[in-house]
Amino acid sequence: MRVLAIDASLRNTGVAIVDANNGKPQSVYFGTIHNASTLRSSSCLVAIRDRLAELIREHEPDCCALESVIYVQSHKTAILLGAARGAAILAAAESGLPIFEYSPKRIKQSTVGRGAAGKDQVAFMVRALLGLTETPGADAADALAIGLTHLRSQEVASLGVPGATQI
Fewest CB within a 10 Å sphere: which of 1, 134, 137, 141? Predict the structure, then answer.
């Protein structure tokens, strides 16, 4: 199974492609879609959608996994985050990919072993679990963690235990 995993954000969207070969997860691609602070929000959304569509064509994932909506104190931040997430969902939906979502707590529990783990702990564990030679940046590490969580969720679901929420 090949998973496109996305940590959506207007300015720095983390993206990863992870594979499960013979039960062993591996990173195929990871990076960050950077949008300059001078770019209008609408242009950022187009850039996110276009880059994700390009990655989907290039890597041919079987599904997409995202972090579910999180609580933020600022309404403006919530709207921008929701818009970025919408651009990511649109790119996956246009390609016909099934889309799954996971709570931030579940992603951290799956990757680190505790739901209150910090970003540094997530990045460290992602590096160790995937045997990466360098620690990925925070956004890419979060995307890799989302991908790993989905792979594990599918293993558990095959045993009859409920898995992810499909959107």
Answer: 134
